[in-house]
Amino acid sequence: MLKNGRLWLLSTLLLVSFSIMTGCSGSYELSRNDVKKKDVDGYKNKRSVTTNILSQKTSLTKVNLESLSSSIAGFNTPTTINVSKDRDEVMYKVIEYLNTPYLWGGTSKRGIDCSGFVQAVMFQALGVALPRTSYEQSNVGVEVAVEDLKFGDLLFFDTRGRGRVSHVGIYLGDGYFVHSGSKTGVAVASLDSDFYSRVFLRAKRVLD
């Protein structure tokens, strides 16, 4: 039963998501008043920036498939039942949001930005309440080194070259993370790609 569940998770992820494209615009600029608007349609400063991520997909290779397979298999080999349950909850929620178009300021499945995606997954899957913007999220939790990254750690990037956090994703394992990118929507990307390795700033652990 558990093995079948892992295969289903793997198959679903591989079929609907893999990308190494650039990240989302900086949610740093969202004001505290604006972020109270939770629905895309109600967001007063929303921009007509959405993505058609099906046309942006990079082709899957044997290496990519093997790497993702190894990574996802690792997600489901925790030391305790509680950890396994938490990881399953996060993975199911990630799958639920995969292929959601990117929308700056968006917080729903009709369109979502990077920090909105991280906030939604962590709260809906585990009840972990995070701030709304990527900049604010970067001030939560304990900083961890790249070599010590674990499933669920938050990754922060400077995608605008301004020396501050402008993008966030959730680490999955084996060098992969999931995020809502401005050119991809919600998709899986590689931390080892030329772009993300160059703009990576730091990682934070918000889960025990």
Mind explaining what this structure looks like?
This protein has 208 residues and is α+β, with helices and mostly antiparallel strands. It has one domain (2-205): endopeptidase domain like (from Nostoc punctiforme) (endopeptidase fold (from Nostoc punctiforme)). Helices cover 33% and strands 17% of the residues. It is built from 6 helices and 8 strands. It has helices spanning 2-16, 62-75, 81-97, 114-126, 134-137, 194-199; strands at 107-108, 111-112, 142-144, 154-157, 167-173, 176-181, 185-190, 200-205. The strands form 2 sheets. The protein has a 6-stranded antiparallel sheet with strand order 3-8-4-5-6-7. A hairpin with a 3-residue loop joins strand 6 and strand 7 (185-190). It is globular and about 35 Å long.
